[in-house]
Amino acid sequence: MQKQAIFQARLLPYVLVAPQLAIVLIFFYWPALQAVIQSFLLQDAFGLSTTFVWFENYLELFRDPSYFAAIVRTFFFSFAIAVSSLSFALLLAVMADKPLRGSILYRTLLIWPYAVAPPVVGVLWIFMLHPSLGVLSRYLRAMGVDWNPLLDGDQAAALIILAAAWKQISYNFLFFLAGLQAIPKSVLEAAAIDGARPMRRFWTVTFPLLSPTIFFLLVVNIVYAFFDTFGIIDTMTRGGPGTSTVTLVYKVYSDGLLGGNLGSSAAQSVILMVMVIVLTGIQFRFVERKVTY
Amino acid sequence: MVEEEGFRRYVAHIILWIGIAIVAFPVYIAIIASTQDNALIANGQMSLLPGGHFFEVYYQTIFVGTSGSTREPVGNMMLNSLVMALAIAIGKIAISIISAYAIVYFRFPFRMPIFWIIFITLMLPVEVRIYPTYKIVADLHMLDSYAGLSLPLIASATATLLFRQFFMTVPDELLEASRIDGAGPVRFFWDTLLPLSRTNMAALFVILFILGWNQYLWPLLITTRDDMQTIQVGIRKMITTTDALTEWPIVMATAVLAMLPPVFVVVVMQKLFVRGLVETEK
């Protein structure tokens, strides 16, 4: 698609794209290229000499059980966060889609957590579920749960998933509500006339019609769980106890921070880049039907 | 609509209020904790009702900071966050709108390659290029500066796409009309296109401001001086690993202050927010 009415100018268009292009090349492409180059190099302990080692850094990573564990953990977190947040948000959206008194107020009261930053989410939840002073920990202990997410890896993971899913409810709710409102009421009425009860109407009419939204949100939630949970993890557990809450992004950060292995950190970045490309590709393939660029 | 018996409606109201309670509870606890005495909280004796230390805690948080070795007033952190968020939001909108203008309204060599170069940055989030970007920013002597905080995040493929899409829907007659009036490309942009884009820019600004204010990983890496910290980074540093030293009322007051601007924006500019969110995501 192209505009028919255009301007004629030689220099002006370049001047207009120059700022964006400069930032993109300096801060996006150059570092990404550096990461790719770096991932093929091995630096000695003092940073004095580097050798080209082909895929050695990558092979090293895949031989490392802790990296493999981080991959599995990241996918598990993503799945758990997406499923729990999506299902709760869908329930709320279905309720809010009904013609209720005060439905605008409900929407306002449910969407604001979108604006809470991940590190703040982490702080809020660790405070509530802190082993010694958390207000909810009291009840957990009263119920006989030996609650200590600072020592127990599984509990720490559960805490991260809970906090991350909580933050994402509002986003999912908003998109589900928009999706539900786009379903023509006549379809539901037709199903009702055919004698389908509300539950059945939901599963046979609403849910299938909502599937593009569900798929879109699934991808967005996975991307969120991959990247935006960094702030939550860093304030709540800092990857611990041990490495039980280290995700792929957290590992790039912490491995590079120790400064030990730049080649390995770069190789991890490149692997992440490939994952982002795949996820964005999927997202665009399925969303392009809705939009034309 | 189809039959909605009274009973089902009650259930819907109840489920929605439960949802709201779940969503609000952590924030309620934070607000309560920020009005209480630290000793009480540290003992695990925190009350679920407001305490009497509201003014004291917020005064200390905003103007003094924690009593630890790094006393950094949270007011200053908020200022840093504000400058960064505004720079990111305005910067992204400014450079995206002009590059989209060039791409839509001009034919020039390398037009499409340039478009693709911008588009592909979608796949290079800061998380996948942190250390090399850090090195470049360090080489440019931009550590601990507002430029370093904002510039590497300013490029925006989504904003460029959004403006491009919008410009495509602007009728060609407008351009022809202003050409008859003798307007060149700059005047057409300034007098016609920019006013038409106002709602789009506002919606985008709301989203980008929230995203900018909530940045964490990047400021964490490139700020070493305490007086350049953003509030998101500052709050993390207040939680000491040796628990006993954490001043929870101040931490919670900081959390409340960190939430306030973006939540305010979402609630007050809800229409623009929803529009911006839906448009930037497609």
Automatic annotation (TrEMBL), chain A:
Q: Which UniProt keywords apply?
A: Cell inner membrane, Cell membrane, Membrane, Transmembrane, Transmembrane helix, Transport
Q: Where in the cell is it found?
A: Cell inner membrane; Cell membrane
**The ABC transmembrane type-1 domain, residue ranges:** 71-283
- Transmembrane parts of this sequence: 12-32, 67-92, 104-128, 156-180, 201-227, 266-287
Question: InterPro entries from the entry?
Answer: MetI-like (IPR000515), MetI-like_sf (IPR035906), UgpAE/MalFG_permease (IPR050809)
UniProt membrane topology term: Multi-pass membrane protein
Which Pfam family, giving just one, matches this sequence?
A: BPD_transp_1
Entry's Gene Ontology BP terms: transmembrane transport
Gene3D superfamilies linked: MetI-like (1.10.3720.10)
Q: What is its main location?
A: membrane
Q: Name one GO cellular component term.
A: plasma membrane
For this chain, the family text in UniProt reads: Belongs to the binding-protein-dependent transport system permease family.
| Subunit architecture | The complex is composed of two ATP-binding proteins (UgpC), two transmembrane proteins (UgpA and UgpE) and a solute-binding protein (UgpB).
Q: Which NCBIfam families match?
A: PRK10561.1
Question: What's the stated role of this polypeptide?
Answer: Part of the ABC transporter complex UgpBAEC involved in sn-glycerol-3-phosphate (G3P) import. Probably responsible for the translocation of the substrate across the membrane.
UniProt protein name:
sn-glycerol-3-phosphate transport system permease protein UgpA
What is the protein's species of origin? Bradyrhizobium hipponense
UniProtKB/TrEMBL annotation, chain B:
Q: Which CDD domains match?
A: TM_PBP2
Q: Which UniProt keywords apply?
A: Cell inner membrane, Cell membrane, Membrane, Transmembrane, Transmembrane helix, Transport
Task: Give the stretches traversing the membrane.
Answer: 12-33, 82-106, 113-134, 146-167, 248-269
Query: Which Gene3D superfamilies does the protein's record reference?
Result: MetI-like
Family statement: Belongs to the binding-protein-dependent transport system permease family.
Write down the species.
Bradyrhizobium hipponense
The record describes the protein's role as:
Part of the ABC transporter complex UgpBAEC involved in sn-glycerol-3-phosphate (G3P) import. Probably responsible for the translocation of the substrate across the membrane.
**Every ABC transmembrane type-1 domain range:** 78-269
Q: How does it sit in the membrane?
A: Multi-pass membrane protein
Q: Gene name on record?
A: ugpE
GO cellular component: a single term: plasma membrane
Swiss-Prot/TrEMBL GO biological process terms: transmembrane transport
Q: What is its main location?
A: membrane
Subcellular location, record wording = Cell inner membrane; Cell membrane
Q: What is this protein called?
A: sn-glycerol-3-phosphate transport system permease protein UgpE
Its taxonomic path starts at: Bacteria, Pseudomonadati, Pseudomonadota, Alphaproteobacteria, Hyphomicrobiales
